[in-house]
Amino acid sequence: MTKPPNGPRISFAAIEKKYGKPIDEWMQIIASAPLIKYMDRVNWLKTEHGVGHGHAMALVHKQQEGQS
Questions:
Q1: Which tens digit of pLDDT belongs to each residue from 20-67?
Q2: N or C: which end of the chain has fewer CB within 10 A?
Q3: Predicted TM-score (pTM) of this structure
Q4: How many CA atoms within 13 Å lie on the side-chain side of 56?
């Protein structure tokens, strides 16, 4: 029997539906952010783009993974 992963799973399709932008566009928005630190970018998405905390964290995490 497989054990489910710990923590919440973020559906990027749900983010696209809720905020009306494809994930690729969110990646470009985050890349253009005038901030470098992870939590600064999370807070910027929340205040400037109205993204919820969990969604903002998932988007910033995904964007940073792409830079590695």
A1: 999 999 999 999 998 989 999 999 999 999 999 999 999 999 999 886
A2: N
A3: 0.82
A4: 17
Taking phi over 0 as left and psi of -120 to 50 as alpha, with beta for the rest, 50 belongs to left
Q: CA nearest 28: which of 62, 68, 52?
A: 62
Give the per-residue SS3 of the chain.
CCCCCCCCCCCHHHHHHHHCCCHHHHHHHHHCCCCCCHHHHHHHHHHHHCCCHHHHHHHHHHHHHHHC
Domain residue limits, the chain? 12-67
Q: Which single residue is written with the structure tokens 């969110």?
A: 26
